[in-house]
Specification:
alpha/beta, Rossmann fold, 2 domains, 7-stranded parallel sheet, 6-stranded parallel sheet, 14 helices
Length: 423
Amino acid sequence: MNITHLSKYDKLGGAAIAAFRLHMALNKAGAQSAMVVDMKTCDDPSVHGPESLKGMFAARNSGHLDRLPLKFYARKEPLFHPAWARRRMNFPLLKNSDIINLHWTTGGFMSIGNIASLAKLGKPVVWTLHDMWAFTGGCHYAGECGKYKAACGACPQLGSSRAGDLSAKVFRRKKRAYADLNLHIVTPSGWLGNRVKDSALLSGRPVQIIPNGLDTGVFKPAEKNTARSVFNFPEDKKIILFGAAGGTSDKRKGFRYLFEAINRLKEIASGQKDYMLLIFGAGHSKGNERFPFETVFAGALSDEVSMSVLYSCADVFVLPSLGDNLPNTIMESMACGTPVAAFDVGGVPDMVEHMKNGFLAKYMDSEDLAQGIKWVLEDERRRQALGEAAREKALEDYSMDVLAKSYLTLYESITSDRPNRKV
């Protein structure tokens, strides 16, 4: 079976990493999988990026062109894409594919018109949703806004009060674009699957819930003191880990709530001098001098082996995200046997089972998050049991073999016209 994946990036960002891991898992399982991207950073020959100067120029600048309509609005959310600038999509791989699998296609890679044009190929299209963009008027996470359930307009993320604004136009273009597509939806989490079911644009489409995956042979527990010696971290500290791939300024990742929880932890936990906060993905923060514990910024790590060792250094991984689908960081931490404390939001409850393999804090409640961190750290025997349960969950649900088998079953059901399970 020939599968072609379309993704803006190959390994930059959580959605791209998830798509790349799926691509690799399918090839390992014996399928013929290829990946077409706008920005190629890996050296894998089965990943195809632009090769001509014209193509590379377009890839680097199309994102800026796509966001031009936003200049007419007071607010310019970084995760809002109109996808209006149509580009030439002449990929021979698409014509030879049995299945076309879309992933994160915004940022100037594919316009809504490009997506519509896939219908001309007569191929089944699977769209793995990594956020809400496919069924909104342009935002990737709707937050408290429920307009995607009927029709977008007067978009709060644009600061707009006009019913016929950009979000309404994008919404209508998507409705026309999807009409002729043989489209099947995959969501990594039940939370996102339910948002699809509620949406006006995709509610009638077949939906399959298939979690993302990772290589559990790479992301695996390492002996803690050995892992810490690699990074020269102290053996006698309780290390609290936080990941900020987009830097600490990304409001959706909840850095503010981490800051509040850590300061509250100082008041409620004993042995504060034994605590250390470790932050990866960011090189600094304007407020880091105010943290009550020693704080180390590890910066961005470029390879999975190093990331695995870093997770093994930690006693708990904290993710105070305000909106997420199925975060790779939680999956990676669990695979490394490091329990997670996170807000009960989005797809996080699909992964973290409260007080079984981690701690789910009340949404946007820094006090409860601090209590959760304390609960994980204050009893070493319990912390180890949580870590073992987290690893077991990763092996059962997120391994590459499970991922490939689930997608191949879906692809085969589509190509043989067998019905798919709906949410």
